[in-house]
Design brief:
mainly alpha, two-stranded antiparallel sheet
């Protein structure tokens, strides 16, 4: 299809600005009566050439429209290139009807369009070529412009995404450091509160132990004083003075019990004496 399109464009004459002109008549002096009758094959070939010319006009107009649109998209409407203004056709000898041996696509195209057994596209291919929405544009700047715009968009997307990933990574690292500092402060606060509770507990237990020891010491002192009083009055009837002071709760309780027994005995003896005196 590409070679047939190139052959059709090569057959149709073009101006330097890329626009096609209708082919002039073969002989302007010939009258309608002098023209020989055309055979069916000649009529078919002339109709095919006319359809190719119409397809060429349509392709050129669509290519120019597409090139202007791409130039507007790329922002290069005011620039000038080797091929002239953007949107115009690319001048080539093969397309301008010049030396056909300079390009590789012109040789097979001349063979296909030459008469005498050459391949002719069927009507379906021709209708598809005429009805397609836009031209191929192999020799214009549509493909480079499109590739350039796609590459620019791709690079811009990659750069933007890379910057976003870097920012998110830095933000995540900063947030991780802040979270570590928060956890460190929380752990220090928890450990401080635990140490404070343990200190208060130790202070309370020490105070209770001191109070208990003071109470035991007071009881021992009272017992010692009572023992001394009993020994001084009864002539040491209770079994002698206490040689050593107890230092435990059980010893203190035993001393208190003995003191109570001694008090009972003292009270009983005093009551007996009071009854004998009258």
């Amino acid at each position: 299809i590409v070679m047939e399109t190139a052959a059709a464009i090569a057959e149709a004459p073009q101006s330097l600005d890329g626009s096609t002109t209708p082919p002039p008549p073969e002989d302007a002096n010939e009258g309608p009566g002098d023209a020989p009758p055309l055979s069916a094959e000649e009529r078919t070939s002339s109709e095919e050439a006319r359809r190719r010319t119409m397809a060429l006009h349509l392709m050129s107009a669509e290519d120019a429209r597409r090139m202007r649109f791409l130039a507007l998209l790329c922002g290069r409407m005011g620039e000038r290139t080797v091929a002239g203004a953007i949107g115009e056709g690319y001048p080539s000898k093969a397309f301008l009807g010049g030396d056909a041996t300079s390009t590789t696509t012109s040789a097979p195209s001349t063979e296909t369009t030459s008469g005498g057994g050459g391949h002719r596209p069927d009507d379906g291919v021709e209708r598809h070529r005429r009805g397609r929405p836009s031209g191929v544009g192999y020799l214009d700047e549509s493909v480079p412009l499109l590739l350039s715009s796609m590459a620019d968009r791709f690079l811009a997307t990659v750069l933007v995404q890379g910057m976003a990933c870097r920012d998110r990574r830095l933000e995540g690292y900063d947030e991780l450091l802040r979270e570590r500092r928060r956890r460190r402060r929380h752990r220090a606060r928890v450990l401080g509160e635990r140490r404070e509770r343990e200190r208060r507990f130790r202070d309370e237990m020490n105070a209770r132990r001191e109070r208990a020891e003071a109470a035991v010491a007071d009881a021992v002192e009272v017992e010692r004083q009572m023992k001394e009083q009993i020994n001084s009055k009864k002539g040491n009837k209770g079994g002698g003075a206490v040689s050593s002071l107890p230092s435990s709760y059980s010893a203190a309780i035993a001393v208190v019990q003995k003191t109570r027994e001694a008090q009972k005995q003292t009270n009983g003896s005093s009551r007996g004496k009071s009854t004998e005196e009258p």
